[in-house]
Amino acid sequence: MKIALNLLILLILASTLVSATDFYVKSVPIKKDIFSDEAAEFNITITNFLGISDVFTVSAFDPSWNLLTNQILVPADSSKSFVLKINPGSEVPLGIHAINVKFKSSQIGEFMNKVFTINIRPYDPVFGIYRPSIQFSANIDKEVDPRKKIPIEIYLRNRNALDIGELEIEIESTLFQDKVTTTLGPLEEKRTEYLYKIDELQEPGLFSLDVKLLVKDVVISQSTQTYEVIGYSTIIQDRESKSFLFKTTETITLENLGNSKKTKKVNLAMSWLKRMLTNSDPKSTTVGKSLEWDITLNSQELRTIIVTTNYRRPIFLLIIIFISLILYYIYRSPIIITKEAFAESQNDEGLEHLKIRLFVKNRTRKIVDRIGIIDRIPSIAQLLKSKKLGTIHPEKITPHEKKGTIIKWNIESLEPFEERIITYEIKSRLKIIGNLSLPEVRIKFMDGNKERIIYSNRVMVSN
Length: 463
Prior knowledge:
Layout: H1 2-14, E1 23-31, E2 33-35, E3 40-48, E4 54-60, E5 65-67, E6 71-74, E7 78-88, E8 95-105, E9 111-121, E10 134-140, E11 143-144, E12 150-158, E13 165-173, E14 177-184, E15 189-196, E16 205-215, E17 218-229, E18 235-243, E19 247-256, E20 262-269, H2 272-276, E21 278-281, E22 285-287, E23 290-297, E24 302-310, H3 312-331, E25 335-347, E26 350-362, E27 368-377, E28 381-384, E29 396-400, E30 404-414, E31 419-432, E32 435-438, E33 442-447, E34 450-455, E35 459-462
Parallel strand pairs: 2-9, 11-17
Antiparallel strand pairs: 1-3, 3-7, 4-6, 4-8, 5-7, 8-9, 10-12, 12-15, 13-14, 13-16, 16-17, 18-19, 19-24, 20-23, 21-24, 22-23, 25-26, 26-31, 27-30, 27-33, 28-31, 29-30, 32-35, 33-34
């Protein structure tokens, strides 16, 4: 018997063809001599050399042996120890057995085999002749939505004629726990679904589910699985607009009702003129004809965008310009006078003979009376008398020692939009080389009951 057992162990060890280089499994026996209703216990340490967490599946090659631990989650670059319980099936005979157990990585697919030696002693102190043999499984969705109830399906099948009576199912998870009492008659089979509610705002992540099947406080079978709580984001958006005195403030409110972070793109279309007058907090970016924001909201976070469009400055500026124009038209001079001069004759020696024109115009719709025009000829030149028809002759010519010659014209009145042209000629006493500056013309007139004085432009003549 011992020789056959040793040969079996050697054959099993030789059959391990895949070496797990990214993890290592170490076992230390705790309880390997058992009765047929007991479970052998071994202290297992799995070392994960990967840089990410890994779930290891534990299974026996011989289906007549039940492992009370199915899956183990081991964090990255760390080790995790647990107690592996191996339960013999009802058909397993008494004696020493070599159990080949496979430890498989779900991340890389590699596996490692371990052989456990178990001695079944010939007595069942709890259940007598028949020991419970129950096919047991617990299933949960790999991904669960925290907004919905989580279904867990429990499957039980009594493999023998033992009337088990009451049995207890212990459901344990980080997010919920429960104990269920049920019955299982001889050869009975049942499938039951249990629903559990968790916090809707539960953060996304990976969690474990441990389900145990107990008869008379003895663990008959156990199932360990992992499931993932998925993330979701429900962002609601609200807008409120207020206007007062050419200023509009729009408040955009965003709220994330989900359990995970999400970035929301907000778009506000407006004309280029409105964009020029708009400021926002937070700052926006211009994309085409719209303002855009990328707003990132954590779970249950509320943020606001304040968009302010201010028409006050341009409107107030237009009002000021309009009032200024009105005041300008009200208070501007009704008479305008322009002076121009050009050479009648010149040669290489310089300027000698100039013709000067004065343009006097009434630019209003009312008559302007008592208009007096005074011009001055520099001392270097003298006035040439003219008797041309149509020319307004001076009212008075006054020589002045320092100021030159002062000429005065009087116009009784100017009709609305009427223009008069005064022309006279001067001759220089000397040849003028370079520029000659002619002073502005002074004009005095009655604007209603008020006397006003305005001046023309200065004239520069060059040869």
